[in-house]
Amino acid sequence: MNAITLRGTTLAHDDLGPRAGLPVLLIHGHPFNRTLWAPQVAALTGAGYRVVTPDLRGYGASGVTPGKVLLSDFADDLAALLDHLGIEQAVVGGVSMGGQIAMEVQRRHSGRVRALVLSDTSAPAETDEGKEFRNQLADRLLAEGMDGYAGEVIGKMLAAYNVAAMPDVAERVLDMMRATDPRGAAAALRGRAERPDYRDTLACVGSPVLILVGADDVYTPVADAEAIHRLVPHATRAVIEKAGHLPGVEQPGHFNAALLDFLATQVAGRD
To answer: Which end of the chain has fewer CB atoms surrounding its CB within 10 Å, N or C?
Structure first.
């Protein structure tokens, strides 16, 4: 693990694979950390890609900013991290909230984006009901901690049938959620409640885009992926069977195959 102080906080990150390889920046969702991407890091570095996996501000081993952290704050952190690493352009990918941060990177720093990978995410701004829910959840996490919440949502983070079928995966996901600092999780929830609408941003993307979604995702279902695909008709879409909201950990073989094929056929060598 590496750590660097940028924009007033410590950002922990891994930078693995050959330095001459095509850079791929992978952004975890809430309430996880960079180790969520372990199956993808192994596959991508093995194929010759340079892979950067940060812990977002407030998550994992990175510093915590209490209060509110906007998606734009995360995006600016990542642009600063790319600067620090000497990476001009990268494939930028994320899952769930990480996918929305990837869209924010596209919105604010489009010149840094070689291609987009959007997994199990959605583009519209938060609804009024959603804003209230996220702020109430932030209050709850600060008051109660992460344990009860983690137990309640594990059957939605993973497809419910995978919780029993994949106990090691379920335990790894639970461990990440329980280890998250409630202050960081709450700050991100409050900021995410204020996220902008990314549909206009996506409609203007000319670079390659991969849309991935678990077939049984209850948070951002296949319909959300189809809506993104309608905005970006040149995108490649892959539905990962027997997976929920985190197909990269539930079905890493299928997820990685789709990702590697996209990078090889749509991105690598593209001017």
So the answer is: C
pTM of the model: 0.97
20-57 residue pLDDT tens: 999 999 999 999 999 999 999 999 999 999 999 999 99
| Number of domains comprising the chain | 1
Distance CA 133, CA 260 (A): 36
What is the CATH number for 91?
3.40.50.1820
Q: Residue 251 sits in which domain range?
A: 2-267
Q: Please report how many Cα atoms fall inside a 13 Å half-sphere around the Cα of residue 235, on the Cβ side.
A: 25
Rounded to a whole number of angstroms, the distance between the first and last alpha carbons of the chain is: 32
* Residue 119 β-bridge partners: 95, 212
pLDDT tens per residue across span 91-133: 999 999 999 999 999 999 999 999 999 999 999 999 999 999 9
All residues at 6 or more sequence positions from 188 whose CB lies less than 8 Å from its CB, including other chains: 30, 31, 56, 58, 59, 69, 74, 97
212 token code pair? 């991935």
Rounded Cα–Cα distance for residues 43 and 32 (Å): 20
